[in-house]
Amino acid sequence: MQGVLSGFAVIVVVIGVGYVIGLRGYLGEQGRDVLTRLAFHVATPALLFTVLAQADLSVIFSTRLLVTALSTAAVAGLFVAVGVVRRWGVARTTIGALCAGYVNSGNLGIPIAVYVLGDASLVAPVLLFQLVGVMPVAVTVLDLASGGARRPLVQRVLTPLRNPIAVGSLAGVAVSAAGLRVPAPVLDPLTLIGNMSVPAALLAFGIALRGSSLPLRGAERAPVLLAVGLKTLVQPVTAWLLAAGVFGLRGAPLLDVVVTSALPAAQNLFTYASTYRVGEVLAREAILLSTVVSVPVLVVVAALLG
Asked: Taking each helix axis from N to C terminus, what angle separates 280-305 and 268-276, rounded to the nearest 10 degrees?
């Protein structure tokens, strides 16, 4: 219980600071855009590189991660299927699918892993899976859907190498896989820059809340409800069914996969939506509502399986 509340308290405070910054106009009219570009093009790639360059990639291959990957694919696939039927568009559907399955494994997952699961390293497989497997694919789709499909074939094939998020992730994986050690004079500045990623994303999210209407009042109501329902209810239930019924997990391993699957949508998804100028309202409202709804869900999961 303490871990759930502590993790959420940090996020709420920083988002609140961003809201006040936007309300008072401290960063001007372009403040949110500047923070978004800073996070997307500079800080987040640096963060991904430093995390993955020092990561043990062997943790990716585990039963727990397989459960997480399958549950993520299930909810994302459901959203995509509905998006195709409702003709929500490729880019918008991609943002919604991410909101339905991409969990906040970093700034929220780590403190909850410490206080609820007792080990911060338990969130590492999910973090690596999302950084290495999900995000490079998602940003490539967003890039192609935002005009990249009109480029020559060679440029389209090389799209992942044009995206800073994908480049940071792939470079970090390459360094880790090669067993290389990044010298401190190189790693330390990148770590310092990477530390701006989460605060910048949260502050930009808070600024975006200024003047915005209450959730579920506009045209994005249907995709927001679908994304939030899939994220907060369907994904943890799917993870529990797979972990307990298919893979026979019990005790702490079962609690681990269900808790991580019940985490809300990550705030950095709003950064991607803002960067590509698509699904911004969908991302903002889905992140906000899934964060609120996930509090009682995580408390119930911890009480039942802890």
From this structure: 160
